[in-house]
Amino acid sequence: MVRYPKRRLTVELCVSVVGLAALAWAVRADTPWFERHVLETYCVTGPGDERIVLGARLVGAGLGALLLIVVRPILGRRAAGLPIGELVVRVASVLLAAVAALGVTEVWLRSRDPHPPSAPAWEEPRLRLDGRGWHYLPNQTRVFPKYGRVVDYAIDGEGNRARRQQDVVDRARPTLLLAGESMAYGWNVPYDESLQGLLERETGLQVVNLSAPGYSTEQEYVRIADALPRFAKPVAVVLLLVNTQISRNAHTHRPHLEIAGDGTPVFAPAAGGLPGLRVVQLLTERLYHPERAVQITAAILRAADRAIRERGARPIFLVTNFGPTCAREPELLHELFEQQRLPFVRVAIAEEDWLAANDRHAGPSGMRKLADAVERALATGL
Length: 382
Prior knowledge:
Layout: H1 5-28, H2 31-37, H3 47-80, H4 84-112, E1 127-129, E2 134-136, E3 140-146, E4 149-155, E5 161-162, E6 174-179, H5 182-185, H6 195-203, E7 206-209, H7 217-227, E8 233-242, E9 256-259, E10 265-268, H8 278-286, H9 291-310, E11 314-320, H10 331-338, E12 344-346, E13 354-356, E14 359-362, H11 364-380
Parallel strand pairs: 6-7, 6-8, 8-11, 11-12
Antiparallel strand pairs: 1-2, 3-4, 4-5, 9-10, 13-14
Helix pairs in contact: 1-3, 6-11, 7-9, 9-10
């Protein structure tokens, strides 16, 4: 016997809304949606990614059908037979259990990483953090064997990678500035085979490397904006954009860039309150790529292009991949570059160009591809 028919109707309506939402998501969350919001590379790289997309959509559809066909009538009948006080207690207990589970997850995340690093943890002892990012402590050299060769990292007096620790930058010379993450830095690659070393030898320009492992595009922009005014003859600025960097631009656990009312990027402090919770950041910034990641990346690229051109230098946006190459041209490139009328050069780093099977950074052949692309851009006036 249905004691409270209106209550049953209300509960079934609520469950139906959730079930229909799951079905609608399964229909609308196509491959481009997953490329933009889920896949680390922001593109499909092969059949494995296609299976992830299909599997997730099937799970969403199955969950929606289960809620509508099975869960809805069961919860409706139970709600219709309970006094309001008991129903409130049961709903409150479920909500409290969910909040407790999130709380335990938050505690666990903080116990694993009490102070989330703004910089890569493995490099932090050798870095200087200044509240807007990081760069290497000056005047240091490390030498160690890697993949059967000796790799040396010499850091000059300004905290940038150089051929020798004692090298001094000549601010009056024609200069090419290089800004990027670990690949532009030359991770696990000897200096002479790095992008910096190749460009320096083959262009005759002074190459100043502003890169560091773990950089997001926003940190590259900050380094460029700080360095450009100090050089009398900047010829070009190479900004390396790796597909996996885009999501980093949405991370708010550290000081970061936001978009001001006029569309320009401005600094904001690390998130606090509810957005500062680790579990919230995990769900909204790591497992899911928010739309903000693309928007702030686009704003940073516009600002970088403007700052470089104002100094009379040529911007070269060098786009590449970390890990498997995209199966097709990423739609995101059209939005970030073509729609904004920004020149870019795309270089595909194939698996044979990696340093090793378990190290997806560009090796010597990958560095050769990147250097060739930059040199062609310089020669053709891209």
